[in-house]
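Example record

Each entry pairs one chain with its bound ligand, NAP.
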Amino acid sequence: MECYNDRLVPADGEAIQALENKLNIPDHPIIPFIEGDGTGPDIWKAARTVFDAAVQQAYGGRRRVAWYEVFAGEKAYRLFKDWLPQGTIDAIRHFHVAIKGPLTTPVGGGIRSLNVTLRQLLDLYVCLRPVRYYPGVPSPMKRPELLDVVIFRENTEDVYAGIEWRQGTPEARKLIEFLDRELGKHIRPDSGIGIKPVSLTGSKRLIRRAIQYAIENGRRSVTLVHKGNIMKFTEGAFRDWGYELVKEEFPDVCVTEAEAGAAAPPGKILVKDRIADSMFQQALLRPEEYDVIATLNLNGDYLSDACAAQVGGLGMAPSANIGDQHGVFEATHGTAPKYAGQDVVNPCSVILCGSMMFHYMGWKEVSHLIESGITEAIRNKQVTYDLHRQMEGATKLKTSEFAAAVVGGMKAAITAA
Ligand code: NAP
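Structure tokens for the complex follow.
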């Protein structure tokens, strides 16, 4: 019998297969999950209730997920004396799609990070962050609903490649001397050094995924966000390679702002670019003009959190790390350990991760139902403590009660349709 971390694989499911960069999803896919530390178990229980109800409602028993627990973080350490057992990595590699709750980052060295390890091993080069407003969520903006963007953030290069040398080390000195001697570039001798690689391959594959997403989901524009006015051969090259890709691979579907102005002809996707600092202003002042965004790692880090804050939903924001053959979906918030086991925290981030996951799998009906359920629950002001304390006249629900409200909201949305 097949097993990972000494746990048998469910007998009532099948593995997702990857065929030429396309996933083949069986009707009963095995999906590994990591429930997470701290409040993770409360959240996972609620999220799974919502997922199973949505799949049942969408397909009436024809399709079903065979959930398979894999381990990382504190639970893995308790069970196996290993924060990230090899079996967990092997299972996610084998089953292609996985979902995880928040994990404690243990203090002290020598611990592998699950995110970094998986990103490297499975080449998960897209960090995907959709940001949209759910009516009723408290927001600092007057019209938060105008922002509806999907951010594709490059996940493997730029400063995230982590190529750095500490000030005063022989390596930093050697590099400074080399640059001075060989390339005539002078750097203050007491500097730390970081390298910012941005490749043609890494940029094009990220931008390609963003454009493909825009095509498949009827989106209107793709904006390349960069700081190319200052860093011409990294950030500027990202923009240039993006436009090159449009010409090479999408000439019939895309039109650039230089060719068409601010509005693309009907049926075409407008490709434009913005300098990163201007993009932050635009997201606040003209949010309705932006749709899919493709950007480098550091810009994307800042921009996705800033956009999420605009819609009031930093604690509700979902995210995914995606490669050609794998997708790992995860909450953006931490373990909130002081609330562990109390059934009080907001499970929306993991629930929305699930919605993204089903969308990625092509089970769009499920994704749509989950979104409708959340929209309905929040519109009815049935919320957990974090939103309750900021909303007038809301009902405060426990985590499990909120899950039930989302399931009720899905049914109401179907009846209304
Ligand atoms: P945190 O767990 O995100 O909690 C900070 C505060 O955010 C909480 O006290 C709570 O605020 C609010 N919050 C977080 N999750 C919430 C939820 N589901 N519902 C409602 N409110 C929520 O951040 P932290 O305390 O800095 O980190 C705790 C542990 O999580 C650390 O070990 C950290 O490394 C880890 N972490 C993991 C991830 C991940 O796995 N993706 C991400 C970030 C942090 P109030 O008290 O004001 O209600």
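Residues 27 and 259 are 45 Å apart (CA to CA).
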